[in-house]
Amino acid sequence: MKIxxxxxxxxxxxxxxxxxxxxxxxxxxDNDTSKIDKLESGIMPIYEEGLEEMVLANVKAGRLKFxxxxxxxxxxxxxxxxxxxxxxxxxxxxxxxxxxSVGREVAEHMTSYRLLVEKSTVIVNTNEQLTRTMNKYLxxxxxxxxxxxxxxxxxxxxxxxxxxxxxxxxxxxxxRAGDLLREIYAxxxxxxxxxxxxxxxxxxxxxKHASNSFLAMKISFINAVSRICELTGADITxxxxxxxxxxxxxxxxxxxxxxxxGSCFPKDVDAFVRMGDEVGYRLDLLKEVQSINxxxxxxxxxxxxxxxxxxxxxxxxxxxxxxxxGTDDIRxxxxxxxxxxxxxxKASLCLWDPIAREKFNExxxxxxxxxxxxxxAKDADVLLILTDWPEIRELDLAALKDSMRCPIVxxxxxxxxxxxxxxxxxxxxxxxxx
Length: 434
Ligand SMILES: NC(=O)c1ccc[n+]([C@@H]2O[C@H](COP(=O)([O-])OP(=O)(O)OC[C@H]3O[C@@H](n4cnc5c(N)ncnc54)[C@H](O)[C@@H]3O)[C@@H](O)[C@H]2O)c1
What we know:
Layout: E1 2-6, H1 10-21, E2 25-29, H2 33-40, H3 51-60, E3 64-67, H4 70-76, E4 79-82, H5 97-109, E5 114-118, H6 126-137, E6 144-148, H7 158-163, E7 167-171, H8 175-192, E8 195-199, H9 201-232, H10 236-244, H11 265-279, H12 284-308, E9 315-319, H13 335-344, E10 348-352, H14 357-363, E11 368-369, H15 373-376, E12 382-385, H16 390-393, H17 397-403, E13 408-411, H18 418-424, E14 427-429
Parallel strand pairs: 1-2, 1-4, 2-3, 4-5, 5-6, 7-8, 9-10, 9-12, 10-11, 12-13, 13-14
Helix pairs in contact: 1-3, 4-5, 5-6, 9-11, 9-12, 11-12
């Protein structure tokens, strides 16, 4: 089938490439010309494992093309996925202007039936607003459908998730739209054996915000328990393990640490809370989730300050800038909270991240980086760990200790075994562990 994707970022590029890989004919559109120029020259604008090879192979096979024109995208395919950003607005509400502008442009250019699919994470009932917008800007009485198809891929494992999703959620209100989406996803559903859930559009839209908010809640819950552990001498790793083996709870997202970040959880929880206020139900539960997440960063910062007393002129090595391993995405990453604070305190910083360095440097130019973990930690008065990259876990602890001026580690991700660190002679602060 022919498919247009508007918005060629983390979601749009992965989705478009996956659709091309399963045999569809895909045009990925983005209004960022530098992004499209890069892609047309075979350069990836983002890092995602396995993406580059797959993009290049599908471009070569003629199944994946790029464009900066929504008009061209509208002419190209009957089915158009919207995968543009929905960043936070001034008061935390989801900024829907990018989604609206795609709807408007598609309406202005379409000359026959189109199915517009919301893949971006949107507020419940966005489909109604989109329908109103389309009707305003259509040049003639042309039929169209809106559908919701929220995306659940995780950065870092996005390609794997796209081919083997836990489920595909689709919200439609016409058989035609339902049939088109079922046909698009058939190869993935057949091969992976995943559930294909067709529901009404509002429920599909809501499923995404509810899922992300629930996951954020799990993280804040375990972080709250980690604080109790610190006050009572219990060990959060063991508590979380004991909880997670209960099938009703599940072991995922029960890892205490410096809190959640990234381009989705913070903004999606915020948008969900605002939406609740708007429709007349206060999601105070999620306000507490947000508050715990904020406190967790402050708590780790406090540990660092208490240990170091004065940070001015102290050499602080930071391992991890991306919001999680496997991605170069630094949006809402804990590093964006810690680095400016440490700069303010006039600490001298050396940073390490295997992939996110370039993106971080765009935000904070002029900082010191080292691509070698031990070199980065050399002569450091303290090491702060913000992302649990596997490379950190594999470090030779004796060598790490030798390279540092003071063997002090503040581990915001509980990467190391506390007893091993103790045995090695480190002063080791982690989260929720004695
Ligand atoms: N990143 C994730 O892990 C993830 C996972 C699931 C869902 N989502 C949701 O998917 C959506 C996209 O997220 P993302 O991380 O891919 O964002 P992104 O910022 O990486 O990509 C969005 C792209 O849309 C482009 N764009 C904006 N307006 C446009 C327009 N009018 N015409 C053409 N292109 C336009 C931007 O230039 C950008 O390249 C968001 O709603 C997000 O919440 C993201």
